[in-house]
């Protein structure tokens, strides 16, 4: 009889433990079901400032606050941010772990074939950055034989890899890194490589915030508007329609301009015709 009681007690404890584990593992789903809203996980690698950065342990920046404004008061969606490595942003979209991503993302044909582009939320042309005392680099025609640091799979990395295919007789020297943009700019200032191609807003922000007064910015010609977009996983067509509509509304009611001035110090918005 004692054995039966003992066994029953253990079985009961096991059932309780299993119930606790089940409750923990299904907590998010239950919360989602209780709220009646779909959770949208937005991926980012947390840089560059002022687009995305951490302050007091919380993500903020222009793109983060735009996304918060997009989903504010939505009766259908809840939004959650997840920080990951640059490559993890795309791997997560591919695996449906993330439904959306923001990371100062520009348009490329390759990305457009794999993901959905929402309406643009900022205008951000690329520039060439060199040391002020370096007169050997004045345009992209001068980067052959010169060195730079790049993060693999970024737009600038692909641009320079394509440059090397077209200039195999005198390629530019590409040093791949996982460092963030602020670290890369400091190393450029220290003379560890010769130049950097990046977006104007990010460059000017880092030069100002880091006191890198020995660097100069060279404007680059462009045959198209260099916009910044939220990116969505394939199959998220309904979500894209919602996000596009909200971006249009935020443009019209002045929210995008307010956030642009707050984080960029000026208005860097797309042309209104391009967000329709």
Automatic annotation (TrEMBL):
Cited SUPFAM superfamilies: Periplasmic binding protein-like II (SSF53850)
Ranges of residues in domain Solute-binding protein family 3/N-terminal: 39-267
Protein name as it appears in the record: L-cystine-binding protein TcyA
Signal sequence bounds: 1-22
Superkingdom in the source lineage: Bacteria
InterPro entries to which the protein is assigned, alphabetical: Solute-binding_3/MltF_N
Key words of the record: Signal
Pfam families: SBP_bac_3
């Amino acid at each position: 009889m004692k054995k039966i009681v003992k066994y029953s007690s253990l079985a009961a404890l096991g059932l309780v433990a299993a119930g606790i584990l089940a409750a923990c593992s299904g907590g998010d789903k239950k919360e989602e079901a209780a709220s009646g809203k779909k959770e949208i996980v937005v991926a980012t690698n947390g840089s560059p400032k002022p687009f995305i950065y951490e302050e007091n342990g919380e993500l903020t920046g222009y793109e983060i606050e735009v996304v918060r404004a997009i989903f504010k008061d939505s009766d259908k969606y809840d939004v959650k941010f997840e920080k990951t490595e640059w490559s993890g942003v795309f791997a997560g979209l591919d695996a449906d772990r993330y439904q959306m991503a923001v990371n100062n993302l520009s348009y490329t044909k390759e990305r457009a074939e794999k993901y959905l582009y929402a309406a643009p939320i900022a205008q951000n042309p690329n520039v060439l950055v060199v040391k002020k005392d370096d007169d050997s680099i004045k345009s992209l025609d001068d980067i052959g034989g010169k060195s730079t640091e790049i993060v693999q799979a970024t737009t600038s990395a692909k641009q320079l890899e394509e440059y090397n295919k077209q200039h195999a007789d005198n390629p530019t020297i590409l040093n791949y890194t996982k460092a963030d943009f602020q670290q890369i700019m400091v190393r450029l200032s220290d003379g560890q490589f010769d130049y950097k191609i990046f977006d104007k807003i990010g460059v000017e922000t880092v030069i100002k915030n880091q006191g890198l007064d020995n660097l100069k910015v060279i404007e680059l010609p462009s045959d198209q508007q260099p916009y910044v977009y939220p990116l969505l996983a394939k199959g998220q067509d309904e979500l894209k329609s919602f996000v596009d509509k909200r971006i249009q509304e935020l443009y019209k009611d002045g929210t995008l301009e307010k956030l642009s001035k707050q984080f960029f110090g000026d208005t860097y918005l797309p042309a209104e015709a391009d967000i329709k």
